[in-house]
Amino acid sequence: MTSDRKGLEGDLMRFVQSRGTRYAKATLQTDLLETGMLDSLLLMDLIFHIEEAYGVRFDSDQVNPSNFRTIEDTVSFVLKQKASPQA
Amino acid sequence: MDILLLQIDPVLEPSAKTAAGYSGPVDATNLGTCFSDVAESRLDHPAVATRASSFSYSWLARAANQVRRYLSSRPEHAAGTRVALQLPNSPEYVAAFYGTLLADCVVVPLPVSLEERRRTQILELAQPDVLISTPADFNAPQVHPTPSTLRLAEKNDVRDPLPPPQRQNHDLAMLLFTSGSMGTPKGVMLSHRNLLANADSILHELPIRADDRTLAVLPFCHAFGNSILQTHILRGATLLLDRGLAFPSSIVESLRDMEATSFSAVPEVYGMLLKYGRLGERPLPALRYMTVAGGELRHDLAEEIARRIKPASFHVMYGQSEATARLASLQPQQLPVRRGSIGRPISGVELAVMDESNRELAANAVGMLCARGENVMLGYWRDPAATADAISPDGWLRTGDLAHRDNDGYFFLHGRASLLIKIQGHRVHPAEIEGLVEAEFPQTAAVAIPTLRGDETRFVLFLAPRDGRSIDVEKIRATCQKELPPYKQPVHYEMIEQFPLTSGYKIDRAALALLIPQASGARRVQPDNILTQSP
Fold first, then answer.
1. Hey, is B313 helix, strand or coil?
2. Contacts of B138 (CB under 8 A, 6+ apart)
3. Is A3 in the B-facing interface, judged by CB distances under 8 Å?
4. What is the pLDDT of residues A14-26, one digit of tens each?
5. How far apart are CA B229 and CA B199, in angstroms?
6. Between the CA atoms of B370, B373, B374 and B377, what dihedral angle is there, to the nearest 10 degrees?
7. DSSP label of B220
8. B395: left (phi over 0), alpha (psi -120 to 50) or beta
9. Cβ of B505: how many Cβ atoms within 10 Å?
10. How many C-beta atoms surround the C-beta of residue B64 within 10 A?
11. CA-CA distance, B227 to B202, in Å (whole number)?
12. What average pLDDT score do residues B436-447 get?
C-alpha cells in the first residue's frame, strides 16, 4: 500500500511540476488553489490523466476542492477509489 | 519602463446612493470619458464585487483618476504612450484600464499566464513606457527603476478637476496581442470607436441591465473578457469576481451564492459544467441568461445547456479579436431550429461570405466569412502588410473562418481557413510549438496537429529526424514544458520516420491527423506499473 502511494505521489507530482516553471516548486502539500496553480485546464488534464492511467472515474460530486486542493488530497482520493471500486 | 504597483486600501464604504441606469455610449467619443459619465450616474452602485468586498463606481472613478494623475504627471508623458497591464481580473485591472485611457494613453493588457518568451516578445513589440501590476502579481527579480506604489482609492484625493482627455474616436485605445497566422504575436489595434461601437452593438443584442451582476470568469485581457468588462461597466452593472472557479461545481455555487444574473464562457467551460458541474440540478433563481463565444460549442451541448438553465436563456455568439469582440448572435429561440448556426450579425455589423477576390458568394456557398463595421480594428500594430491581408480597401475584415449563409441570413461555420485553432478561447498557431522545437533542436522537424481529447482540442506533436539521428523526446518535452504555457503544450509526442507529403510537396497535415494514436494522452506514463512497482 505504501508503495502504491509513493508511486502515485511521484507520478502526480511529476505531472503537475512538469507544466512549467511556475509549477516546478509544487510539493505534495502545496495548496494548489491558494497559489492559483490549479486552473480549469490543469483540473481537466489531471482528471483525464487519472481516468486514463488508473481507471478511476470521477462523479461530479468528486470534482471538488477537497479532492484537488493538494496533490496529497488527490492521491488519497485515487487510492480510496482504487480500494473500493464501484463503492 | 517604469513600474507602478497598485494596492487597495481596505476602506469600504456603505452602499447608499445609486442614481438611475446609464443609457449607453450613444454619442461618446472617448471610452474613458464614457466610463467617467457612467460612474457619475451610478455613484455607490457596485461596479466590481467579490464575496468579501464591493467596489462602487465612485471608488472606481477615484481609483482610475489616481492612475490617470500618476501617468499624466510623468515627465515623459505623451499622448499615445503604451501602458502594459499585468493584472488578473480585479478592481485594480478595471481602474488601471480606464485610468490609462483617461490619461490619453494606450492599454496593453498582458495575459496573466503568459510564458516568459511571449511576454518578452510582446513588450519588445509594444514598447510600453509603464507597466502596472500589483505586489502579488509582479515578480521580476531585478527591476531597474524602483517601482512606485499607488494606494487605491484614497478618499482625500480631492484636487483640481482634470481636463477632458484629448484622444477620441479613431485614436488607438488598446493593443490586444493575439497569435497571428505565422504563430508570432500580432497586436490588434482597437480604437475608442471600435470599443464603443462593439459595446453598443452588444448592449442592443443582449438584455444587459443596470442591475445585472455577471460572474466574470473570462480574463479581461482577452477580447471576449474585455467585451464583458466594457458592456457591463458602460451599462452601470456589476462584475462579480470569485476565486477557485477552476471547479465546475464552484462556478455553479458562485452563480447561486453571489446571485449572478448572467454568465459568459468559452465552450470548454460549458463542457465541464455539463460533465461535472451539476448545472441545473438546483435552481439559480437570479440567473437570466448565459452566453458562449470564443470557439465552437457542439450543437447538442448548446441545447443541453439551454435546457438545463431554463427559464434563463442561452445565447450562442461568435466573434473575433480583430472585430473588437463579437460579431454574430443566435437568438435563443432559434437554437433548436438553426442547428449549429452562429446566428446573424449583431446591429452595426455586416457579415458576408466571400471568395478569394472579395466577391460576395450566394447563399449556401462556402467561402471566407468577412465582417464590416465600426468594430473592425484599425489594423495590426506596426504591420501594414498583415493589415492589408486582413482588411480589404472597402473595410471588409477576412475573419479566417470558413462559413456559409442560409437562405434566411443565418451563418454557419466550416472550420478555419488557416491553421489557427482555439484552445480554451486562446488562439494558438501550430507554428508556435513547431518553431520553438525546431529552434532548440535544429536536427528535428516538428509538426503540431490538433486533436480532440475528450471534448477539448489539444496538440499532438509529430517529430521526425532531419539527419537520421535519434531524437531525444524527453529533452523536447522538457523544453515545451519550460517554454510553453500548459494549453499550448502537446499532450502527446509521436516519432515518425518522415512526414507524409501532399502532391504539392507540403507536409500533409490531414494525413498526419490520421496517424494520431488513440488515447494518446495516456501514453506518457506506464501507469499500471506505478501502482505496483516498488519505491
1. strand
2. B3, B5, B86, B131, B147
3. yes
4. 999 988 777 888 9
5. 9
6. 10
7. T
8. left
9. 7
10. 26
11. 9
12. 90
Write the pLDDT tens digit of every residue in B110-169: 977 677 788 889 999 999 999 999 988 887 656 667 899 999 987 765 667 788 899 999
What's the whole-number mean pLDDT along residues B502-518? 81
β-strands B2-8, B130-133 pairing: parallel
| Secondary structure class of B34 (helix, strand, coil) | helix
pLDDT at position B214 over 80? yes
Determine which of B185-189, B323-327, B439-443, B522-526 has the lowest per-residue pLDDT on average.
B522-526
Coil, helix or strand at residue B88: coil
| A38 part of contact set with chain B, CB < 8 Å | yes
C-alpha distances out from residue B294 to B9, B63, B219, B317, Å: 35, 31, 12, 8
One-character DSSP codes across B232-272: HHHHT-EEE--S-TTSHHHHHHHHHHTT-SEEEE-HHHHHH
C-alpha cell, B52: 468579501
Number of residues that make up chain B: 535
Give the pairing type, strands B213-215 and B367-373.
unpaired
Reduced to 3 states (helix: H, G, I; strand: E, B; else coil), residue B501 is strand
C-alpha cell at B248: 465546475
Q: Which residue did the predictor score with more confidence, B424 or B521?
A: B424
DSSP B363-378: TT--EEEEEEETTS-S
Give residue B24's pLDDT: 52
Length of chain A in residues, anyone? 87
Q: Give contacts of A74 with chain B, Cβ < 8 Å.
A: none
Any idea what the CATH number is for the domain that residue A42 is in?
1.10.1200.10
Of A41, A48, A49, the CB nearest to B486: A41
Q: Hey, which residues does A17 pair with through a beta bridge?
A: none
Q: Which of A14, A52, A80 to mutate to test the interface with B (most CBs of B within 10 A)?
A: A52
Please state which architecture CATH assigns to domain B429-529: 2-Layer Sandwich (3.30)
Neighbouring CB atoms inside 10 A of A80's CB total 12
CA distance B336 to B303: 7
> B143 in contact with A at a CB cutoff of 8 Å?
no
Whether residue B19 is preceded by a cis peptide bond, meaning omega within 30 degrees of 0, is: no
Residue B489 C-alpha, separation from nearest chain A C-alpha, in angstroms: 8
Helix (H) or strand (E) holding A68: helix A65-68
Instruction: State yes or no: ipTM above 0.85.
Output: no
For A17-44, letters b (16+ CB in 10 Å) and e give: bbbbeebeebeeebebbeebbbbbbbbb
Based on the structure, what is the number of domains in chain A?
1
User: How many CA atoms within 13 Å lie on the side-chain side of B195?
Assistant: 38
Peptide bond into B147 cis (omega under 30): no
CB contact under 8 A, A3 and B535: yes
Give CA–CA dist B480/B478, Å, rounded. Answer: 5
Query: In which element (H, E) is residue B66 found?
Result: helix B57-72
Question: What pLDDT does B523 receive?
Answer: 34
Residues of the domain holding A76: 2-83
CB B4 within 8 A of CB B130: yes
Q: In degrees, to the nearest 5, what angle opens at C-alpha B158 toward C-alphas B153 and B161?
A: 115
